[in-house]
Amino acid sequence: MSRFTTPAILEMLGHYNWRVHEPFAFYLSDDNSDVIEVPAGFITDLATVPRIFLDFATARRQIRQSGN
């Protein structure tokens, strides 16, 4: 199950952008093998998924479907 292990502490920069104040991690699986680490200073609109994460998710799905 996906989960955060620490709170995401954000600062609102305007109507659409937020800055991460402290690094945090988001775990994609129960065994902690798939994790996304977000560094302090990262700016997000909280809606757009960065391309690198889409590529990662697609690759993991393909590996799981192939049985490897």
TrEMBL record:
Superkingdom of source: Bacteria
A Pfam family assignment: DUF1353
Name of the protein this chain belongs to: Int_2 protein
Organism: Salmonella sp. NCTC 6947
Name of the gene this protein is made from: int_2
